[in-house]
């Protein structure tokens, strides 16, 4: 199956965000659930092997978009590799929160997840990705991910992961046997790195921060990531301006 | 023929400070996750196929660009930064790069090394290794192989010292990683005709960017450890 869904914002006459484009393409079905909130609703199983799906987000300057999903995504096997390509352009002074539910790699799947995030100056982004290696007691399929974030064309973060190779998943250098891993990229820059069991808050070289977490289950993973996100932006809400960054991790 | 310069670059006795870094091995041993030769093998194999890949690719890219008069080292430096999320790992890479550059400028004097030192006095280690490989007469494929080997040889030696492992058993393990080293170097610098001159800067963006969440955690934990033998 080939499908491409898209969301685009524009600034209304009063400066408020309006959704100028909301194009669903099953299985990627989009529903507006708030003034600037869109939920991804799966209307078919998958992605299945062989699917080529894309999601395009265009956040116009000084507008706001939050993208979430109502349920986790279960990646299933099929004919060949499935692919989800997410591209997002975030204009000057625009705000984007990308916080979908986890991607679960079912046995036998072969998935490719590509994210291209192009930011303009003063864009404010929180981009969370969570991956679960198989359902309960299940050996996961394979997944390759690539994440590229640029600011005005200069690289902020480029990361690839290969998951589902039993040797690498078990390696104490890679996942150390964790079944769930997550990354949140934030444009806000943490004042200093922070580390605790299964959680690292990593200020990037140019600007921005990566929160990286490894956990035994999805609940613990979310809790670690949210703790890291709060440590970066002070209150965990990157779209709220003017709050200090001085809060301690885990303290609201 | 294999370049003699490659042998010198890959030799752990090259006085470029590599012995002070364990690449996460000291912290993973302190945590108990590496405690014998089989667990060390899982660590090294994971390290090679993650952090080793962009290191090899950056080294090959730097070697290829070193023939240029102005290769744009600032841009390659940004690409290396973007592939290293952990501040502790960025610091370790730049420290080792600075030391290697200092040694290489004396051992293989070349304008390419001077240009790198002017543009980035503390280059990332793979970039310094790539330009040193050029000055030493090694090829881009050899630079990639040296960087891949560097990704495992230092941690392996550190593990011998920290755990008192049998050095022969650990060298047998490194020998067994031979096909993996070749595969990583080949992925970093695919064989085939390479026109002389640097790759267009845009293509640096597409270089591999494999990451390892556990290595990031270990590097940051190690930077905060009160007792440590190795810098990283």
Provide a concise account of the structure shown.
Chain A has 252 residues and is mainly beta.
What do these coordinates show?
The complex is a heterodimer of chains A (252) and B (232). Chain A has 252 residues and is mainly beta. Chain A has helices at 166-170, 218-233, and strands spanning 2-11, 17-23, 28-34, 37-42, 52-59, 64-69, 73-75, 82-90, 95-99, 103-105, 110-119, 124-132, 142-151, 154-163, 180-186, 194-196, 199-203, 209-215. In chain A, a hairpin with a 2-residue loop joins strand 16 (194-196) and strand 17. With 232 residues, chain B is mostly helical. Helices cover 66% and strands 0% of the residues of chain B. Chain B is globular, with a radius of gyration of 17 Å. The N and C termini of chain B lie far apart (35 Å).
Write the layout of secondary structure elements.
The complex is a heterodimer of chains A (252) and B (232).
Chain A (H helix, E strand, L loop, with lengths): L1 E10 L5 E7 L4 E7 L2 E6 L9 E8 L4 E6 L3 E3 L6 E9 L4 E5 L3 E3 L4 E10 L4 E9 L9 E10 L2 E10 L2 H5 L9 E7 L7 E3 L2 E5 L5 E7 L2 H16 L19
Parallel strand pairs in A: 1-5, 4-6, 5-8, 6-9, 7-10, 8-11, 9-12, 10-12, 11-13
Antiparallel strand pairs in A: 1-2, 3-4, 12-15, 13-14, 15-18, 16-17, 17-18
Chain B lengths: L3 H7 L14 H6 L6 H13 L2 H14 L7 H10 L4 H21 L3 H9 L5 H11 L4 H24 L3 H10 L1 H11 L12 H4 L8 H12 L8
Helix pairs in contact in B: 3-9, 4-8, 4-9, 4-11, 6-8, 8-9, 9-10, 9-11
């Amino acid at each position: 199956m080939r499908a491409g869904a898209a969301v685009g914002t524009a600034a209304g006459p009063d400066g408020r965000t309006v959704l100028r484009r909301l194009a669903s393409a099953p299985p990627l079905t989009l529903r507006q659930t708030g003034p600037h909130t869109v939920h991804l609703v799966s209307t078919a199983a998958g992605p299945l092997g062989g699917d080529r799906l894309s999601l395009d987000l265009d956040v116009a300057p000084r507008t706001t978009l939050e993208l979430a999903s109502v349920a986790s995504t279960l990646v299933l096997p099929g004919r060949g590799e499935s692919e989800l390509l997410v591209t997002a352009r975030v204009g000057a002074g625009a705000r984007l929160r990308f916080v979908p539910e986890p991607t679960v790699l079912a046995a036998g799947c072969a998935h490719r997840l590509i994210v291209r995030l192009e930011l303009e100056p003063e864009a404010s982004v929180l981009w969370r990705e969570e991956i679960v290696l198989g359902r309960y007691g299940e050996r996961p399929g394979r997944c390759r991910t690539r994440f590229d974030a640029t600011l005005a064309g200069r690289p902020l973060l480029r990361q690839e992961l290969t998951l589902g190779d039993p040797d690498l998943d078990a390696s104490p250098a890679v996942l150390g046997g964790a079944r769930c891993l997550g990354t949140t990229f934030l444009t806000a820059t943490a004042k200093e790195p922070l580390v605790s069991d299964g959680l690292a808050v990593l200020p990037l070289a140019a600007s921005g921060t990566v929160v990286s977490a490894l956990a035994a289950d999805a609940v613990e993973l979310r809790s670690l990531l949210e703790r890291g996100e709060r440590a970066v932006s002070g209150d965990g809400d990157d779209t709220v301006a003017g709050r200090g960054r001085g809060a301690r991790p885990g303290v609201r | 023929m294999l370049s003699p310069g490659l042998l010198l670059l890959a030799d752990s006795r090259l006085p470029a400070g590599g012995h002070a870094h364990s690449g996460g091995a000291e912290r993973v041993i302190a945590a108990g996750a590496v405690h014998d030769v089989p667990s060390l093998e899982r660590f090294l194999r994971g390290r090679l196929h993650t952090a080793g890949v962009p290191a090899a690719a950056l080294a090959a890219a730097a070697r290829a660009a070193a023939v240029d008069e102005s290769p744009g080292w600032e841009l390659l430096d940004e690409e290396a930064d973007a592939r290293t999320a952990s501040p502790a790992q960025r610091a370790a890479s730049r420290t080792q790069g600075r030391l290697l550059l200092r040694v290489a400028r004396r051992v293989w004097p070349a304008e390419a090394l001077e240009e790198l030192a002017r543009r980035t006095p503390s280059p990332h280690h793979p970039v310094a290794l790539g330009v040193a490989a050029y000055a030493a007469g090694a090829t881009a494929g050899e630079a990639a192989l040296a960087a891949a080997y560097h990704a495992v040889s230092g941690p392996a030696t550190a593990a011998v010292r920290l755990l008192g492992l049998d050095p022969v058993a650990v060298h047998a393990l490194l020998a067994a990683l031979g096909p993996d080293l070749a595969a990583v170097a080949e992925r970093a610098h695919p064989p085939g005709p390479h026109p002389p001159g640097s790759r267009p800067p845009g293509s640096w963006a597409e270089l591999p960017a494999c990451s390892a969440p556990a290595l990031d955690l270990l590097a940051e934990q190690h930077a905060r450890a009160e007792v440590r033998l190795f810098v990283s």
